[in-house]
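Sanity check record (used in CI):
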Amino acid sequence: MTSNIPDPHDGFDWDTAEAEVFDLNAARTRRAPGRDDTSDADRDDITEDIDADDAESVDDSPQRLGGPVDAADDIPVSAFNTGQRRPILADWARSRATLIAALRWWAKYAGYVAAYHAVRTPKYAAKTAVYAPAGLFRGTGRALHWATAEEGNWALRQAAASKGDADAWLKLDARRQRQSVWRWWVLLFAAATLATGLVALMVGPAWWRWVALAVAVPLLARVGRPDDKRLTDRVSEARTYRKLTAELVRRALTSLQLAAINSAVAKDPKAISFPVDIHRDGPGHLAIVDLPYGVEAADVVARRGKLASAMRLPLDQVWPEPAPGHTGRLALWVGYEPASQMKQPAWPLLQASARVDVFKAFAFATDPRLNTVEIDLMFRNYLFGGQPGSGKTFALRDLVLAAALDARAEIRGYELKGVGDFAVLEPVMAEYGNGFDDETLARCFAFIEWLYEECRRRSKRIEHYARLGKAPENKVTPELASLKGSGLHPLVAWFDELQELMTSKYGKDAGEILEKVIKLGRALGVIILIGTQIPDKDSLPTGITRNVNSRFCLSVADQTANDMILGTSAYKNGHRATVFQPVIEAGWGILAGFGKPVAVRSFYVDTTAAARIVARAVALRVNAGTLPNPDEQTRAVTPDHSVLDDLAQVWPGDEKAAWNETLCALLAELRPDVYGGWEAAQLTTALKPHPLVKVADVGRRIDGKATTRRGIKHTDLLAAIAERNRKQAAD
Ligand SMILES: Nc1ncnc2c1ncn2[C@@H]1O[C@H](COP(=O)(O)OP(=O)(O)OP(=O)(O)O)[C@@H](O)[C@H]1O
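Expected output for Cell division protein FtsK:
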């Protein structure tokens, strides 16, 4: 753990820096009484002494009172410390994941220290064997010297003798004798106890002697060792972790070569202030920093590399991000160890009771602090991009697995790499293709065409339900998605390695149609998930990238790829997936589309775990009656239907005749995608092929008044159906 951590002392003159920017005494005077000045004593062995004394880095105990040390007088301290109560438990202790992460870190460190010393045991034993006899003599000598009570007294007597002050000399000697008498008795008693102990050891069981040796020998060795020699080796020369202190943050910020920061700090050392104490947050420390006036947090985020350099820490241990409040507020989180070395908790959806509602958020990833990051699927479409080995297929599969746990969701998709990463999901998919051969590409293209048609059908249905007041925002609602036969259930369409299709002969058309699907489908319950390796304009038409509303950019090679996935200026604004290394940091990426972009690592779910989820998804779908039939991987298109049969089905009760407009409304209810929006005249036209059904005036009494409108008779309808059936039978 230690070997790859750089020495934080490198090249920095602490004394000068402290003197320049920080008046420790002044800061302490301003501190409120009762405030605990001691910094994390439990971490002292692994942090630097100079840091441990920093006035603005505090133990994250709930008892702290008082305002921030550095709050500039002219800056309103806002809601941070105006009557806000501190949580009883620190943030990191409130979430199971962060608590586990912190405990895991300690356990790992303890294990490391134990292992470190264990392998050096022979060396320690040899040193102990050399120093212990010396310790015996030295210890005996010290005891005798103590008993004579000469320490200090001798020098005073000598001084009295030199001055010829016999009276003083005699008084001092009498005092020494008085002290010495009881000390000799103590020594005698100790010697007698020791002798008795030795006799007891001689006659007692052997293990007593071993225990006594194990205790006495290291103690003697400690007494006998030279002052500049340790018995055990230092666990770390370079620190595995350096606690975040105000000084460290100031130094780092002033090393960014941001002129605005440097000139502000030159004028006023308190230009960088801390509205909240630096405190422990999950497996690391968090500093909320108010940057000098006019400096944006994004400027600092964009210089994350320089920041890490100034802190002498690996890049993935330093996580600056804009903090809520104002644009000049920075949240700087520094982990105990690089994120790539932290163990991620298991995916919550692996729990046997986990269910997903695509309208609601579910766990997708963890941030550097190991907090769970949630996303949702409905009204979204996703673009996952990254170079080979960045983990995009696994991340995309997480989403499809989550969708599988919502029994309403219909899942169809193509992996155009041909390795079968998604094959485990086959039992719950209504359509699945795997490969990059022409046939699979053709099927994938036909699927995109079908998606477009499906969007058209769905838009008719939405229009109909909107008229009925069931889709107030002209969008699929949870009720409509659950309504059997509404045809508006969630439809998840995924494509992995889409560049294979886009660079094939189908590419141009596929790109255009998919763009339309993305635009139309969002409100209609069609969720598009795209994974691609090469995010250039040929492999991924800009029309698609522009219209996707959720993006996950995993490790990419350069700024162009980064901005293709995350959008123009993402790189400039500090959202850089180029910092992640493929394979080693697989699963890490920048997630955008959910507030400010954040660095997260998708949950790692291997194929065995995925199979367990699929088994649960199958059970859910069997119960709900939505399990696709593996033998019929066909796309459900609206079946052929006859207007005659449909009219017979919706005919209002015992009515002998009905108005066209009444019938149109009933037909639209039955099949909104077909009859939605029909007017009376449309029904007349549709009935033209059936001459037995005569559209004529039908009179009715409405509120006592006779009203006549165009309509048909039930007997005509039944006659036409009988005639049609007769003809069909004859054929
Ligand atoms: N979230 C994760 N955490 C840890 N390891 C991961 C994670 N996601 C993926 N990996 C590892 O990275 C490897 C590559 O992942 P994946 O196949 O998803 O990459 P890819 O970007 O799709 O690469 P390619 O384009 O070559 O298929 C996986 O085999 C897996 O072991």
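The chain has four domains: 14-67+74-109+240-274+289-339, 121-224, 372-624, 643-730. If this sentence no longer matches the regenerated tokens, the check is flagged for review.
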